[in-house]
């Protein structure tokens, strides 16, 4: 079996002052060419886990334990300069809001050229590369686009520009943090289709963060479900959707309306509200809301156990005999 | 008794450029009392403008909104002051629609006292009753909005809207800002309240899944016009307008998995500028079945059955 492209082991993230645990014991691998989705609600730690890969954690938040290995090198030991060599070149990122990720006072062409410039010398061919990249993501009038500012584009077009920029250096891993959440559904569908096509063409690995299970159902190979800063379940898309074993995953799935329910059965809801990661302590993070909760769930925290196809962090997993 | 929306048009003039935005271009709908109308469409389709016109927050440029045989909104006098009790609006973001410096109990008692809805000495009692309607305990009355979770805050907004015992509740994206795991709870609450209080709902959302779950009738809007309307089952199971079909196909649905092909069937292009509407059918430039006539003729709603209408002459009926 090939070795993973990226491997995150026992990652812990906390605030610096007045330490509060935000992410605890997160481990996952991404293999070459594989697309992995991270699903979770706000505050589940999905974005922090991914930002830590590129050493882009916000001020006041830091990694306290664990290692992040990319092609055998531990990224947590990299100097800022070494990180800049990786960022945008080996691992590229697309953010939720392109309006804040793009420079509002710089023309698009110049911004894309700058993305090349930060990794190699720019020559006559670079401008053509920028044009090709914009054309490839479906920007209609490339000549006009390179002379335009970000605000002159629609939300969908801006996200295409972001994707073109991320793909410029042919990264091996593309990280996407809810890039379609702010878009209308038909535009979201266009972007998903574009990303899926580019990934296939380039055999690129992908890590896609979302709160919407429907978005990743047809986009990724494997899914990681996060809750209160911890991974509660992971596995292939098929396993997660058809055979959820963690009560949170199962609850989340049955709380979403689908088109395939002619009866409009009453949605099952999960009682209570998401737990703050730092308040979990030595118990299962989902215990306060869980319908299967037993005494042992409050005494110690379950560990994520299983295989690449399916792992679950629960003492009383659904469909598993104790 | 019913809600009748008759030929509502709404234009906004932009002073700086002298252009006119056509937010609503002739919308007519009728909803029987006690039923729920779902309105879906993408940004700029006019669904929120329609909510504001129905609730009387905006006057329509043309047309009128009639509830129980009485006009609640037209281009003339503002009727809403005398009708406030019957029509209430719940917004998407409860954090910005509640006063951050007011305890949630007070935000409800304020409504009760200002409009003198109950005798002075029963205001607190009524407030607690309203909180219990939405599944909140009365000890939450002393908290500020920031001390509540998103779901609890939205329950408070609903309780506040119910204070005046409205008959019609307009819900503009009421669950979109909530965490996924608490959306179902609020949706179920809305369904229970509808039965218990005999409310009529207008449920506006970009999320077809939620609209499908709660609505009796569904209206699909595109650039200020109704492109298709019908019984919820007709719209979801037998969509006729190419835009409705595209919307349903693009709806992220976790019941279809591991099939990248589903992503390929996408609608091309983007929504045109409402200040510069295309000639003919507003959808023709993105439409997979458009013919030449679509760029010159504005399609009218065609009756498919007594409840199902579609604004597309090319639709296979």
Task: Give your account of this protein's structure.
- The complex is a heterodimer of chains A (322) and B (317).
- Chain A is an alpha/beta fold.
- Chain A is built from 12 helices and 12 strands.
- In chain A, the strands form 2 sheets. Chain A has an 8-stranded mixed sheet with strand order 6-7-8-3-9-10-12-11, with helices on both faces. Chain A has a 4-stranded antiparallel sheet with strand order 2-1-4-5, covered by helices on one side.
- The longest helix of chain A is centred in the middle third of the chain and has 18 residues, at 185-202.
- Chain A has helices at 46-53, 80-86, 98-101, 108-117, 124-136, 142-146, 155-167, 185-202, 213-216, 237-242, 247-254, 295-299, and strands spanning 6-15, 21-30, 35-39, 61-70, 73-74, 91-94, 173-177, 205-210, 222-227, 230-236, 305-306, 310-312.
- In chain B, strand 9 and strand 10 form a beta hairpin.
- In chain B, helix 4 packs across helix 5 (123-133) and helix 5 crosses helix 6.
- Chain B starts with a strand and ends in a 7-residue tail after the last strand.
- The mean pLDDT of chain B is 90.
Task: Sum up the structure in keywords.
heterodimer; A: 322 residues; alpha/beta; 8-stranded mixed beta sheet; 4-stranded antiparallel beta sheet; 31% helix; globular; B: 317 residues; 11 helices
